[in-house]
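Explain this one:

_____
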Amino acid sequence: MKAGRALLVTGALVVAGALVAWRALTSHWTLTTAAGSCVIAQGMARAEVLTECGRPMTSGMQPKVPGRPFPRMCSAECDRYSDHLVFYDCDGRVAKAERIQPGVWQHCSIGSIE
């Protein structure tokens, strides 16, 4: 009986550890929005981001983003939410988000970012 319990506890710890590791490997960002804030994750569809965070302050395009299968390239969208830029991949899913760096070209053509 004790061996069964030990196996059950060990299994639960392995599953919990795997979930923590998966969460750490998936990138998440908190964006400031007109309504407060929202959390997005790498791989979310743009429609999901719009539902979760509302309309961005402005939108633009990224020049030549690598896609799959290689050598596919596209001009993917990017959105500005307050002090962050959200970059999408060729399939319209979140690739990354970056804090805006005034005066630095961040590969998102939406006009002047001040």
